[in-house]
Amino acid sequence: MPYRLTVIGTGYLGITHAACMADLGFDVLGLDIDADKIRRLNNGELPIHEPGLEAVLRRGLESGRLRFTTSYEEVGAFGDVHFVCVGTPQKQGEYAADVSYMDAAIESLAPYLGRECLVVGKSTVPVGTAGRLADKLARLAPDGVQPELAWNPEFLREGFAVKDTLNPDRIVIGVRSERAEKVLREVYQPLGEVPIVVTDFATAELVKTAANAFLATKISFINAMAEVCEAAHADVKQLSEALSYDDRIGGRFLNAGLGFGGGCLPKDIRAFMARAGELGADQALTFLREVDAINMRRRARMVDLARELAGGSFQGCTVGVLGAAFKPNSDDIRDSPALDVAVTIGHQGGQVTVYDPIALDNARKAHPELRYGASALEAVRGANVVLLLTEWPEFVELDPEVLGQAVATRKIVDGRNALNAETWRSAGWHYRALGRP
Ligand code: UDX
C-alpha cells in the first residue's frame, strides 16, 4: 500500500510539492492555517503565479488524490509521511531566520500523530534545527507513538517549480535511521534515476544554505567585476562571456546587473552568517557580508546612474520603470531589487510609473505610493528616463522606435544587461547599463 502524504504549509514550496506528489500517484492532504487560501486551493485556484502549476493542481483535485484542509487532526490521522514546508523568513531587525512557524507546525502536529510515521522537514533552516525539532517531536507525540524526523531540503527555483520538483538534479535526505531512508527512497522512487545523497541532519540542512550561498556569491562576484569594469571603462558582459567558456567556471548565474533578490538568496545568506556566528564559525562566512554588500550596492548604483541620466536630480523627472518582480516569470516581489530601486527614486522626488506583466497586483499592495501603468508603453509615456529592472522577455523584445515615440527623452538604463546596446543606440537612445561603458 503506497504511503499517504501530507504537506504542511502551502507557499511556493508546499503547493508545488503537494500537487506534484499527487501527480506522481500519491494521496496527498495539504494543510495551511490560512482558511481563505485553503478554500481557494480546493477550488483549483493558485494563490501564486507559477508556470504549469495550476494544471497540476487541478489534475490532482480532479483525480481525488489531492485536497487541502486547515485541520491538524485530519492531517495527523491521514498521513504516513508528513512534509513540513512552512516559511522561515528573516527576523525583523536581525539577520537570523525566524523558525517559529516550523516549531508551531511540529507542536500542532505532534499530538495528533496516532501511529508510526515520518515527519520530513523541507524548509530552509539554520543548521541544528532538525536535531532540536526531533527532540520536540518525540516529547510532544502521544505516549507509545514514536514518530521519526528526517530532513530533505528543496532546491526548486520559482518560475521552474514544477520542473524542478519532478526532475530534480539531486535529492538530499538527512536521516537517523535506515527505516527513514527507506521510506524516503520509496516516496521519491517514481521520479526515476535521480542521484540521492544520504546524510546526517546537519549536513542536509547545510547543503541547502551552502548551495544558496554559492549562487549568491557567483552573482556578487560578477557584479563586483562590473564595479571594476565601470571604474576601468571595460565591459562586464564581454568579460562574463569570456569567463563562461571555461567550464570550470561556467556561464550560469554570471549575469551582471541589478543583483539578486527574492524570498530565498538574501535572507538565506544572512541567516547563514547569523548561525555561523552562534556556532563560533563566523570568520568562515565573513565573505558573505561582502556578497550581500556588493549586491545591495548594485541597487544604489542603479539609482545613481538613473539620476545622472536625469540630469543630476529626480525633482520634476518622470521615470518609467519596467519590472517589479524579483525575476522574470514570477509575481514574487519579496526583496525585489526592481521595486527597491523604484521606491528609492520615488523617495528622491522622481515621478515613478511601474509596469510588470504579472507582479503589478502584489507591487500595488506593497507600495500604493507608486504609480502603475497597464502596459510597458503606458509606464514610459512622457518619461525622461526609462529603467529596465526585470528582464521579462516582453521587455527584451520591445521595439526601441515604438518606445521612443512614447517617451519624452530617449534615455534608458538597462539594469539587467538584457538589451542589445547597438540596436537601442542606433534608434537614437542614450543607452547605459551596469558594468558597461
Ligand atoms: C533560489 C535558488 O536558485 C533555488 O535553488 C532555491 O531553492 C531558492 O532560491 P529563486 O529565488 O527562485 O531560487 O531564484 P533564482 O533563479 O536563483 O534567482 C535569484 C536572484 O538572482 C534573482 O533576483 C535573479 O534575478 C538574480 N540573478 C540570477 C542574477 O542577478 N544574475 C544571475 O546570473 C542569476
From TrEMBL:
Gene3D superfamilies: Cytochrome c1, transmembrane anchor, C-terminal (1.20.5.100), NAD(P)-binding Rossmann-like Domain (3.40.50.720). SMART domains: UDPG_MGDP_dh_C. InterPro entries: 6-PGluconate_DH-like_C_sf, NAD(P)-bd_dom_sf, UDP-Glc/GDP-Man, UDP-Glc/GDP-Man_DH_C, UDP-Glc/GDP-Man_DH_C_sf, UDP-Glc/GDP-Man_DH_dimer, UDP-Glc/GDP-Man_DH_N, UDPglc_DH_bac. Its EC number is 1.1.1.22. The keyword Endoplasmic reticulum does not apply. Residues 320-421 form the UDP-glucose/GDP-mannose dehydrogenase C-terminal domain. NAD(+) binds at D32, K37, T88, T124, E158, K267, R334. Keywords: NAD, Oxidoreductase. It catalyses: UDP-alpha-D-glucose + 2 NAD(+) + H2O = UDP-alpha-D-glucuronate + 2 NADH + 3 H(+). Pathway: Nucleotide-sugar biosynthesis; UDP-alpha-D-glucuronate biosynthesis; UDP-alpha-D-glucuronate from UDP-alpha-D-glucose: step 1/1. The keyword Oxidoreductase applies. It holds the Pfam family UDPG_MGDP_dh_N. One of its GO terms (biological process) is polysaccharide biosynthetic process. Substrate binds at F155, L156, R157, E158, K208, F253, L254, N255, A256, G257, G261, K327. The active site is at C264. It is an enzyme of class 1 (oxidoreductase). GO terms for molecular function: NAD binding; UDP-glucose 6-dehydrogenase activity. Belongs to the UDP-glucose/GDP-mannose dehydrogenase family. This is UDP-glucose 6-dehydrogenase. It comes from Nonomuraea cavernae.
